Amino acid sequence: MKDEIIEWIKTIILALVIGFTITTFVKPTIVKNYSMVPTLDENNFLMVNRFLYKRSEPQRGDIIVFKTNLKTNTGKDKLLIKRIIALPNDEILISDGDVYINGELLDEPYLNTPYTSGEVHMIIPEGKIFAMGDNRENSLDSRDEVLGLIDMDDIIGKAFLRLYPFNKIGFLLIGMPNL
Q1: Is residue 18 part of a domain?
Q2: For residue 6, is it within any domain?
Q3: 159 phi-psi bin (left φ>0, alpha ψ -120 to 50, beta other)
Q4: Among residues 82, 139, 142, 158, which one is catalytic?
Q5: Whether 35 is catalytic
Q6: Which domain CATH number covers 97?
Q7: What is the pTM of this model?
Q8: Shortest CA distance to 172 belongs to which of 19, 49, 5?
Q9: Is residue 19 domain-resident?
Q10: How confident is the model at residue 178 (pLDDT cuts 50, 70, 90)?
Q11: In a 10 Å sphere around its CB, with 0-12 CB exposed, 13-18 middle and 19+ buried, how is residue 47 labelled?
């Protein structure tokens, strides 16, 4: 009986250590809108690496979750998920439906339609990034002054794994070439 109790205690402690480790380094997230279609659909269940950007810098093409000043219906701070398009010191130009980074047309094979609405021309300041949803016509992103540029300190982490729906389980490896 005593050995059984000790085994239960070990199992519970191990489960708590694993749970603490996972929640410290990984954040489970559910996609709540259609702004990342076709890459991500509403109700996709993702794992977000919260530790990655403590060791390295975000990269163009990363799919990130970040804090905003926007509020949910319940009054909580809203988290958004978007793709990094431009990094600090990059020049971004959106014109006639095309996106250019540092003078080169951006190849975006993950888009359903290659047209990007809006007119943008700026150099991204230090500490900021320019992010857009893959569903460009249905995305509140850096093109809109309501959201604007994303502060690097507001990035929670990089989405790296889809766990649901089960037929789409896998790592999110779709990125963009470095220019």
Answers
A1: no
A2: no
A3: beta
A4: 82
A5: yes
A6: 2.10.109.10
A7: 0.85
A8: 49
A9: no
A10: very low
A11: buried
Compute the radius of gyration of the chain from its Cα atoms.
19
The total number of structural domains that make up the chain: 1
Q: What residues make up the domain containing 43?
A: 28-171
CA–CA gap between residue 63 and residue 81 (Å, rounded): 7
**Residue pointed to by tokens 């992103």:** 141
82 among known catalytic residues: yes
Are 49 and 25 contacting, i.e. CB atoms less than 8 angstroms apart?
yes
Neighbours of 29 (CB within 10 A): 17
Question: What is the H or E stretch that residue 22 is in?
Answer: helix 2-25
Name the active-site residue from 2, 10, 32, 35: 35
- Give me the DSSP letters along 141-178: -TTSTTT-SEEGGGEEEEEEEEEESGGG-EE-------
User: Is residue 175's pLDDT more than 80?
Assistant: no
Best-predicted range by mean pLDDT (26-30, 82-86, 163-167): 82-86
How far is the C-alpha of 164 from the C-alpha of 162, rounded, in Å? 6
Domain membership of residue 21 (yes or no) is no
Residues 6+ apart with CB under 8 A from 39: 63, 83, 110, 134, 172, 174
Task: Render pLDDT for 135-163 as a digit per residue (tens, 0 to 9).
Answer: 999 999 999 999 999 999 999 999 999 98
